[in-house]
């Protein structure tokens, strides 16, 4: 009798867990993401002090930062990821109106330091428990990425995912990082961002099979 009660408790637990962690359907998430993208303002107020040319360059600075963060997020900068970041960044930087420079007005805007970091977080960054980019603010980065076209965003996330698997596989930290980025860009929940990641990853995988 006791064993039966325990078994029933376990079953109920798994049913509840499945409901909590069940991911929303890809169709609904994609529809919501597209709707949110259409609602986003074409011009972001925070970018109003930049010329059209500078805004175009900012998107490239944001692209490079995204690749670097993806490669750094699990604490292991694998040679394959180094190569992917270098290759993709070099191609994008050729489109810049001025040479890429982190100390430039654009570089400082994308890599703006956080004005306040609590001691516990700072200690983790210094001890290598958290990647160095956690000391940088993300508001400007996200604002700039949101000014991309749909095809621009697809290209960005494609390169991010390729960078994440350039070492042979994606770690849970990398998947979480990319899902959170999807959520930030498309104004979605983490679960919905994870669905976006899975859809993009599958499309990338299917295309690779076709090419082979």
Q: Averaging pLDDT over every residue, what do you get?
A: 82
> Would you count the extended β strands for me?
0
* Largest pleated sheet: none
Strand-residue proportion = under 5%
The number of helical elements comes to 10
**Number of separate domains:** 1
* N-C termini distance: 57 Å
In N-to-C order, the SSE pattern is HHHHHHHHHH
Structural class: mainly alpha
Shape: globular
Radius of gyration: 20 Å
Low-confidence parts: 2-20
Query: Helix coverage percent of residues?
Result: 55-70%
List strands and helices in order, with pairings.
Elements lengths: L1 H20 L4 H14 L12 H21 L6 H15 L11 H6 L8 H8 L12 H7 L4 H15 L7 H15 L3 H22 L1
Helix pairs in contact: 3-4, 3-7, 3-8, 4-8, 8-9, 8-10, 9-10
Could you describe the 3D structure shown?
This protein has 212 residues and is mainly α. The chain has one domain (25-211). It is 67% helix and 0% strand. The chain is built from 10 helices and no strands. It has helices spanning 2-21, 26-39, 52-72, 79-93, 105-110, 119-126, 139-145, 150-164, 172-186, 190-211. α3 (52-72) runs antiparallel to α4 (79-93) and α8 (150-164) packs across α10 (190-211). Mean pLDDT is 82; it is low at 2-20.
């Amino acid at each position: 009798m006791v064993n039966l009660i325990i078994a029933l408790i376990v079953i109920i637990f798994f049913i509840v867990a499945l409901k909590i962690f069940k991911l929303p359907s890809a169709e609904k998430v994609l529809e919501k993401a597209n709707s949110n993208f259409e609602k986003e303002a074409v011009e972001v107020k925070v970018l109003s002090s930049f010329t059209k040319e500078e805004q175009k360059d900012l998107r490239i600075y944001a692209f490079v930062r995204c690749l670097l963060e993806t490669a750094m997020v699990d604490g292991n900068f694998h040679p394959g990821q180094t190569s992917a970041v270098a290759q993709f960044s070099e191609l994008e930087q050729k489109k810049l109106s001025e040479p890429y420079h982190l100390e430039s007005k654009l570089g400082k805007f994308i890599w703006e330091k956080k004005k306040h970091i609590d001691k516990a977080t700072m200690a983790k960054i210094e001890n290598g428990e958290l990647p160095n980019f956690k000391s940088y603010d993300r508001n400007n980065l996200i604002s700039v990425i949101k000014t991309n076209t749909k095809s621009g965003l697809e290209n960005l996330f494609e390169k991010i995912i390729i960078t994440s698997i350039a070492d042979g596989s994606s770690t849970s930290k990398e998947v979480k990082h990319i899902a959170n980025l999807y959520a930030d860009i498309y104004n979605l929940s983490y679960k919905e961002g994870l669905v976006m990641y899975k859809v993009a990853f599958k499309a990338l995988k299917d295309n690779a099979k076709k090419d082979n």
